[in-house]
User: Fold HIT domain-containing protein from Brassica oleracea.
Amino acid sequence: HRVAILSPHLSPVMASEKEAALSATPSDAPTIFDKIISKEIPSTVVLAFRDITPQGPVHILLIPKVRDGLTGLSKAEERHIDILGRLLYTAKLVAKQEGLDEGFRIVINDGPQGCQSVYHIHVHLIGGRQMNWPPG
Assistant:
């Protein structure tokens, strides 16, 4: 399995992720990810793409093609088990493809205090450097 990784040419709208998260609200309105999927924002594949504000040498976002009400992890229901598992397994495949053999971090932000700024569940795959603990 090879996962195509996109580099959409998007510009940051807010000065920081924290500001974006504090101003974002859950909604059924299309998110930036929906716009990528619908090709409103040009791209060729929509499963994994590089973050526009990377927090490490490798910072890739993985998203499901369909939200199905899954705006954040706190909204997950039993019917979402397969897609959540698929996201994590795909993150492992992408990490291997990116050569992150020494380790990586998976992050799922949820809600304003979790610094979630886009309400379409997504997994951050971050690697290529030594991570610290505690995060954030």
About this structure: The domain at 5-127 is CATH 3.30.428.10 (HIT family, subunit A). The beta strands are 5-6, 48-50, 58-62, 104-107, 123-127. The chain has a mean pLDDT of 83.
